[in-house]
Amino acid sequence: MKIYNTLNKQKEAFNPLEENKVRMYVCGPTVYNLIHIGNARPYIIFDTVRRYFESIGYDVNYVQNFTDVDDKIIKKANEEGKTTDEVVEYYIRETLKDAHNLNVNPATHHPRVTEEMSAIINMIKALIDKGLAYEVNGTVYYNTSSFPEYGKLSKKVLEELEAGRSERIEITDEKRNHMDFVLWKPKKEGEPFWKSPWSDGRPGWHIECSAMAKKYLGDTIDIHAGGEDLVFPHHENEVAQSEGANGAPFSNYWMHNSFLNIDNKKMSKSLGNFKTLREVGDTFGYDTVRFFMLSAHYRSPLNFSGELMEAAKNGLERIKNAKTNLEFALAHTKLTERSVEETKLAQELPTFEMRFHEAMQDDFNTADAISIIFELVKFANNYAKEGASEPFIKEVYGLFIKLTDILGILYTHQNVCKDDLTDEEIKMYIEKRTTAKKAKDFKEADRIREFLKDKGVIIEDTREGVRFKRV
Ligand code: AMP
Ligand code: ZN
């Protein structure tokens, strides 16, 4: 298994710390808004990495934090006249729904900053004791010049930094060095705060991940992951904090996904060129979003457009149809013995599987893995159809399910995003279904029935018309 390691800028053989186990940390969201489709990329990618490890027998301890204290959360709470707790609870719930809709499995642990203050404070204390951090007027800074390896992860940006040109470095008089960063800061009026030896205040952003990774995974972990914009300063600072405090290497492998772009620019909240996952998922299907993200390699930039989403939807449809066809053929075949030709054809199946694994083991090349699934679809459509024997269809079907399950691309539990539908909305969907039935588009009519069922609404066709009830 080879993984591209940002730390050494090359693909490296994966050697876990403990046999058959992976300790993996993925930076989680700051919970103050609905995620956009760019944010969905790391969710889907690293869930797939985890699924792949699990499929080959690893036990994965997958930790993803929620940043539940932050200036942006406080701002949102003030704007909406809510408490920060209310804002946080709402968006954590919605984010978990989004993840579920994308078939992203829940993490083994989802720690929250506000519940991990003692781990955070202890780590800051350790850094001060080791002379790696200093306090000025209640603020604690990391002393970057006392960590000689500072910059080892993000090499590329270091020269810029030294020239003091980075916009991402806060300049204040209190810092000894302009690259020093905040570990703890005093509260401002009306802000949430925690007691600490330095001031009533709250932690800086970076320290939370170092403290949580240590608590849930140990001093050294196997894989640390996130989007490529996190390399600097966030991950660089995590390395300095964890290695400084623990005196041990932090993460053996660093994985970073490339951006999802729109018109060849990064989709981001600040540029305002984003689409929420809800908008796109409700239009094209959440499974299409997952499939779309996996059809490119995670380290290649990926452009988003309506046409590309349509193409992804059609591609996924071909795979879904193959599943339906295989199930139909299996339910109807009466042949219990494999033919001579089928025995020969079945010998090709292990080659599909082997090539799929080769693609995935080459730094998770999901794009190639999907093209192998398409080849298997073609094979299934050609041979495992009406007239084929039960044992042969079963074998093809078994492999098809195994490979599509590793990528998590075929599932039906989605569209549980919106809160309960109003009566008006339900009537609108019923009308749409009636129109579809009149046009003999029974597939669409069934899709609407299923969609409503997912939302807890059952519809009944009666002589008087269509009735609905909530369950
Ligand atoms: P943020 O809310 O900006 O902290 O982002 C949460 C996660 O999404 C981080 O891992 C980011 O690197 C990632 N991310 C943000 N925007 C994009 C994008 N346009 N494409 C891919 N990943 C992104
Ligand atoms: Zn982090």
Model description:
The chain is α/β, with parallel strands linked by helices. It has three domains: 2-257, HUPs (Rossmann fold); 277-407, Isoleucyl-tRNA Synthetase, Domain 1 (Orthogonal Bundle); 423-470. The protein contains 16 helices and 15 strands. A four-stranded parallel sheet has the order 4-3-9-10, sandwiched between helices. Strand 11 and strand 12 (265-266) form a beta hairpin. Helix 2 packs across helix 3, helix 10 packs parallel to helix 13 and helix 13 (366-383) packs antiparallel against helix 14. The radius of gyration is 26 Å and the shape is globular. The mean pLDDT is 93.
Count every beta strand, where a strand is a DSSP E run of 2 or more residues: 15
Q: What does the overall shape look like?
A: globular
Uncertain segments are: none
CATH topology of the largest domain, anyone? Rossmann fold
What is the CA–CA distance across the termini?
47 Å
What structural class is derived from the secondary structure elements? Answer: alpha/beta
CATH class of the largest domain: Alpha Beta
Report the major sheet: 4 strands, parallel
What is the architecture of the largest domain at the second tier of CATH? 3-Layer(aba) Sandwich
- In which order are the strands of the major sheet placed? 4-3-9-10
Number of domains: 3
What is the average per-residue confidence, as pLDDT, rounded to a whole number?
93
Query: Which bin fits the share of residues in helices?
Result: 40-55%
In CATH terms, the superfamily of the largest domain is HUPs
